């Protein structure tokens, strides 16, 4: 977070009219984010790995009221660069990225943490985040309300042997996101010469685990204590656009229910 108390601050206009990329849009959390952004008046752009799956979830993108959709391998930096260029060319600007790509692998002892699980987690949690943040950094920094948000885990405070792969990957992703926050401050409020208002922010949203209605239907006997509903996550992601950028840049927000 910026420590330059002399830098001017900017008032955010909220999500109304913002162009926001939702990475991992076909997951339950992504669907909730797209829905919440659209309800707030934003243009939500659904990004997933397969064109067919995107259309199954969000309908025909050619329809007048359809959700704009882009298929992209977010682990391929060149592909993400093309995505950034295509979205910017079509919509004129990009105001935010909500990164919801990841997944979970765990269980067993420390010795049971195998390479296949690590490769899966590193690709989903770290590589895709590195690529999206680099490809969209300039657009987010140029926006009057630029936001980048990722989802992490509250369990990093007490890592376990059984979840070592998962927690190590999330810790790396968090560190990268905080580095992005410093980069945004460096070109705005923390500029050495002529500080600008801090209009952009990179934020970590931390949860114990996510909950959706499908999970409730499959396990009606469970309380899911401490879980964060995907709708609550989506609502907080939308609220980021109304938050003061200087206050939330580099923040780790605990959304544990």
Give an overview in words.
Belongs to the short-chain dehydrogenases/reductases (SDR) family. InterPro entries: NAD(P)-bd_dom_sf, SDR_DHRS6-like, SDR_fam. Keywords: Oxidoreductase. This is SDR family oxidoreductase. It holds the Pfam family adh_short. Helix 3 packs parallel to helix 4. It is globular and about 50 Å long. Helix 1 links the parallel strand 1 (19-23) and strand 2 (43-48). It has one domain (19-254): 3-Layer(aba) Sandwich (Rossmann fold). The chain has a seven-stranded parallel β-sheet, with helices on both faces. Strands 7-8 form a two-stranded parallel ribbon. It has helices spanning 28-39, 51-58, 77-91, 115-142, 164-186, 213-218, 230-239, 245-248; strands spanning 19-23, 43-48, 69-71, 96-99, 147-153, 201-207, 210-211, 228-229, 252-254. The two termini are 25 Å apart. The longest helix is centred in the middle third of the chain and has 28 residues, at 115-142. Residues 1-9 have low confidence and may be disordered. Helix content is 41%, strand content 15%. The protein has eight helices and nine strands. It is α/β, with parallel strands linked by helices.
Helices and strands: which structural class?
A: alpha/beta
Overall, the morphology is globular
Tell me the CATH architecture. Answer: 3-Layer(aba) Sandwich
> How many β-strands, per DSSP?
9
Beta fraction: 15-25%
User: What is the topology, as strand order, of the major beta sheet?
Assistant: 3-2-1-4-5-6-9
In round numbers, the mean pLDDT is 92
What is the CATH topology assignment?
Rossmann fold
Tell me the name of the CATH homologous superfamily: NAD(P)-binding Rossmann-like Domain
């Amino acid at each position: 977070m910026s420590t330059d108390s002399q830098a001017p601050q900017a008032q955010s206009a909220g999500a109304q009219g913002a162009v926001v990329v939702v990475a991992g849009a076909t997951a339950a959390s992504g669907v909730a984010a797209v829905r919440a952004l659209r309800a707030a008046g934003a243009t939500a752009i659904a990004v997933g790995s397969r064109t067919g799956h995107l259309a199954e979830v969000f309908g025909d993108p050619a329809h007048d009221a359809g959700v704009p959709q882009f298929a992209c391998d977010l682990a391929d930096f060149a592909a993400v660069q093309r995505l950034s260029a295509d979205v910017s060319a079509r919509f004129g600007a990009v105001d935010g990225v909500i990164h919801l790509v990841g997944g979970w692998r765990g269980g067993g002892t420390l010795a049971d943490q195998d390479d296949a699980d690590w490769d899966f987690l590193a690709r989903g949690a770290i590589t895709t985040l590195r690529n999206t943040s680099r490809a969209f950094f300039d657009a987010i920094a140029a926006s009057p309300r630029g936001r980048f948000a990722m989802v992490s885990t509250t369990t990093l405070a007490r890592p376990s042997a059984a979840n070592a792969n998962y927690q190590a990957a999330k810790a790396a992703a968090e560190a990268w996101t905080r580095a992005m926050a410093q980069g945004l401050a460096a070109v705005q409020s923390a500029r050495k010469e002529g500080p600008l208002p801090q209009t952009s922010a990179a934020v970590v949203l931390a949860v114990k685990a996510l909950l959706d209605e499908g999970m409730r239907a499959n396990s009606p006997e469970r309380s899911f204590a401490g879980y964060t509903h995907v709708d609550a996550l989506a609502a907080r992601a939308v609220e980021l656009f109304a938050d003061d950028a200087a206050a939330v840049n580099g923040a780790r927000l605990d959304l544990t229910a």
